[in-house]
Design brief:
Length: 267
Amino acid sequence: MANSQHLALLREGVETWNQWRKEWAEEERENSLQAAGNGYIKKRYPHHVDLSDADLEDCDLSLADLSGANLRGARLVHANLLGADLRQADLYRAILNIAKLEYADLRESYLVEASVADANLWRADLRNANLSWASFFHAFLVEADLREADLTQTNFTWGVLSGAKVQGAYSNHTILGDVDLSSVNGLEELHCSRPPLIDLYTLARSSGRLPESFLREAGIESEIIPSLLALFHSYGNDDSVWDRDLSPSSPWETKHRLQEPPQATVW
């Protein structure tokens, strides 16, 4: 459970919270120097902030220093985390649906099984983050940095990934259903231990503009790739061909939609 003192400080406002974090860090630094002679090695971002299972729905935490915080199971629905420092934060099974995470620093954070549906992660930094089994259903990840992140069975169905960077990320059955991947940077540099899961709608949205090496990793036979690319390049932008309404380009064009994603047909 969350530490009551930490919750009280956080509810006093981000300025008060960040000042306390700064003072605490200075005190810890002095204690670490004193203990250095005994061979004590301090963890870079210890979980000295306990906000586990806290209800922080609708809270304004923009620019808050939450680095290394224990946020396991925390409810952060519609929270404002614009520019927040969440480096190495533990967000296991946290609920971040519809959260504002633009410019948030989530490097090396632990988002395993987290729900980040409909969240806005424009230009968020997720390098080296563990996103295994997390749901980014219909999340806005334009220009997000996912380099070297763990994407094991991460669900990006209906996500918006324009300009996102994925170089060196680890894909293990990453779910990419109904997603336009045409402007994602680094698809050919994914480390795929198991094929990413894509469907016909992903191929259509991407209009055939996908690296052949990525399609091979997705399990598509080399012999048919040229024909597929030509087909979807010709018809990918014609919605009537697929007889389906395409999802909005941004989660902020819809009301709070938190339902589970549909089952995708994968290769």
